[in-house]
């Protein structure tokens, strides 16, 4: 029986190589779009007064255990987890797991 409007024709599987090439083409179109990357560290009880009192070399205590991996967010969405590291005089985050 031929396919009719009520009966769609069977779809053919897309070869893996073609699928990967299509994905790469799609990503190339958007890879230069800007995004905001942030690390979320919760500091309960932190007030505006605390914020205004911050100075260079201030230490802010959080409830984040040193063994935990803080979430990394791209445009507000969790995309990875990481670990804090010190690089020279800067605090950095090393990616340890993609979400």
What does this structure look like?
With 99 residues, the chain is an alpha+beta fold. It has a domain at 38-53 and 68-99: SpoA-like (Surface presentation of antigens (SPOA)), CATH 2.30.330.10. 20% of the residues lie in helices and 27% in strands. The chain contains 2 helices and 4 strands, in the order αβαβββ. A 4-stranded antiparallel β-sheet has the order 1-2-3-4, with no helix packed on it. Strand 2 and strand 3 form a beta hairpin. The protein is elongated. The relative contact order is 0.13.
Topology:
Elements: H1 16-30, E1 37-39, H2 48-52, E2 71-74, E3 77-87, E4 90-98
Antiparallel strand pairs: 1-2, 2-3, 3-4
């Amino acid at each position: 029986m031929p396919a009719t409007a009520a009966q769609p024709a069977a779809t053919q599987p897309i070869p893996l190589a073609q699928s990967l090439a299509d994905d790469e083409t799609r990503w190339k179109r958007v890879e230069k779009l800007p995004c905001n990357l942030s690390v979320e560290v919760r500091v309960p009880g932190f007030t505006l007064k605390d914020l205004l009192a911050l100075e260079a070399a201030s230490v802010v205590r959080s409830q984040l255990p040193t063994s935990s991996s803080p979430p990394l967010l791209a445009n507000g969405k969790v995309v990875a987890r990481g670990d804090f590291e010190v690089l020279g005089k800067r605090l950095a985050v090393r990616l340890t797991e993609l979400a």
